[in-house]
Amino acid sequence: MATSKKVLGRGLGAFFPEYESEDSDSKKKSSKPKEKEGVEKNIVSPEERVNIVLNVPVDHIRANPNQPRKEFDEERLDELADSIKKHGLIQPITVRYIGEKRFELISGERRLRAAKLAGIAEIPAYIREADDEQSMAFALIENIQREELNPLEVALGYKRLLEEFDYTQAEVANRVGKNRTTVTNMLRLLGLPDFIQAALASNAISVGHARALITVESKSDQQKLLSKIIKLGWSVRQVEEAVRALSSSTSKKKPAKKEPANPFYDEISARLRRTFSTKVNIKPKANGGEIKIEYYSEDDLERILSIFDSI
Fold first, then answer.
1. pLDDT value at position 170?
2. CATH for 5-24+47-138?
3. With 90 as the cut, is the pLDDT of residue 206 above it?
4. How would CATH label the architecture of 150-191?
5. What is the distance between the alpha carbons of residues 28 and 308, in angstroms, rounded to a whole number?
6. Is 147 in the active site?
């Protein structure tokens, strides 16, 4: 496999002709005979401007609008800035060239911010070719691999890939190297109320705690359980047991209404049961209705989702 070209000894002008200064242009003109008309200048082709590492002015690098990471620890940034002052930036950031002497960050925003704090004028950058979709995917994947995103930032990154680039959940999972069920569960976190999301973002609770609270319908019950998790240090298993007990208590208080049989819905339910090989319940309402498909494990959910994909 070909390795990336490291050309730090060469200036930006060697690869991006617009970086050539007027002074250098004038020197070339005075030291070289005038070019004949019709002779093409030896300009580096676009494909030679990627997969290289160059020193790039930090003022010419703009932040990635698709950056999934939103929170940066100021103390850790200051520590990194001090390290960069002493030793320089050892690991290059990754950027793409967007024209007019401007680069856009793909990954390494923490390093870029710290370099600016350290007062560094130029930093090494790996230049790669990427469109908007690839830039966002690269930024998300890099942060996930470095485990620098909190769960909600990961979920928001998945959501943007779904909404802005029309990915399916299976495509998102393939892109970021995760199981389809993992992507689905992360996206479900975005449906939690703000107070639970805040606790998750601050690491007061884990993803497992949050997932256990998703099935609790009442926000007041969610708030009570959240308080116990934080104050009593409940494990995920303890939360799951409390949720089951709450669900059982609620179902006893609300006697189930017996819906009259409807041959049409019975026939549709039977067809869906055959398709998904699991229990399916159709509940008609005044306007429309809902279909409840049961699953009994994450593997079973993955099986059902694969059937939807094939449809």
1. 87
2. 3.90.1530.30
3. yes
4. Orthogonal Bundle (1.10)
5. 64
6. no
